[in-house]
Write a structure and sequence with these properties.
By secondary structure, this protein is an alpha/beta fold. The protein is built from 13 helices and nine strands.
């Protein structure tokens, strides 16, 4: 490297299942980085499309690949992670791709004191829409608190492999939000993140992607993850943040139920909300609470009068 350090080995796992439409672009974006210490592993879940033919086309440049049934995406990533030997780790899904020179920027950003490097991810779709997600204030407590100031996207976060192993493999009981769980656990133990503005990855949104088609399931799993972290997180501050977020989620659900209860008058519903808010003012006295009470007492639209 320019400063005399040896280039660290970067290990990338690509989990894939019937993604032949995008897979070659993903593989090429990784292999053509020109990075001198690259370990690329492809874990295919037994695809029945052109995926295997594409993988075989590039197999002499891959460190390892397999095609066989698995128990889902988290299991596939764990299988690859178990074979990795690099200092730096991430997974790149088979419908996303790296920007040229991304691995060099990631390796350069890692210093002795850095536990992770986070770069910008460009979300895009096939209609030409694009939106960059720039990393900011990436802390375990803020993620657990659903703090809007914490900006983060999984393919932009690169971890030291040993740190990830120390905090535990991906939890295979989750199908959608295992990255949320993994990131909070890992950053709870290894919190020093170097944030860089460079666009590292393009994250594709399409009708078949889980992010597009299953957002409710993502949120359901995040609720379960917060329940787990509220009692098991290593850092007390993460446990506290998780418990507070759970209380907020439950309060918003309560507001929604009271607001839509057509069997009680608007006046009684407003009283119920006001008295319930007093029992946990830290969480429940919010603009949403006050706004809901105001609309119940002084409806201004037909929807408010319901």
């Amino acid at each position: 490297m320019a400063d005399g350090r040896k280039w660290p080995t970067i290990s990338i796992v690509t989990p894939s299942f019937n993604q032949g439409r995008y897979l070659e672009e993903t593989i090429r974006s990784i292999l053509l980085q020109g990075y001198p210490q690259l370990e690329h592993i492809v874990i295919d879940g037994g695809s029945r499309d052109e995926s295997v033919a594409i993988i075989k086309k590039y197999e002499r440049w891959l460190s390892y690949w397999v095609t066989e049934s698995d128990r889902g995406q988290a299991h596939a990533i764990n299988k690859g992670l178990a074979r990795c030997t690099g200092e730096i780790f991430n997974w790149i899904n088979s419908d996303d791709y790296l920007m040229p020179g991304a691995l060099g920027k990631i390796a350069t950003a890692f210093r002795d004191e850095a536990d992770a490097v986070a770069g910008t991810v460009l979300n895009f779709d096939e209609n030409g829409w694009e939106e960059p997600l720039v990393p900011a204030r990436l802390e375990a407590e803020k993620l657990a608190a659903y703090d809007a100031s914490a900006q983060w996207h999984q393919p932009g976060l690169w971890l030291r492999r040993e740190n990830l192993l120390s905090s535990g493999y991906l939890d295979e009981s989750y199908d959608y939000s295992f990255d949320f769980d993994m990131t909070i656990r890992c950053l709870s133990m290894f919190p020093r993140v170097v944030e860089i503005p460079d666009v590292l990855v393009h994250f594709r949104l399409h009708p078949q992607s889980k992010t597009t088609s299953s957002w409710e399931r993502f949120m359901e799993e995040r609720y379960r993850i917060l329940q787990k972290l509220s009692t098991t997180a290593i850092k007390p501050s993460v446990r506290k943040a998780s418990r507070r977020t759970l209380r907020s989620i439950e309060w918003y659900q309560f507001i929604d139920n009271v607001r839509n209860n057509q069997h009680r008058s608007r006046f009684l519903r407003s009283l119920e909300l006001a008295f319930a808010a007093c029992r946990d003012p830290e969480v429940r006295f919010t603009r949403l609470t006050l706004g809901t009470i105001r609309r119940l007492l002084f409806p201004s639209t037909a929807q408010d009068r319901m």
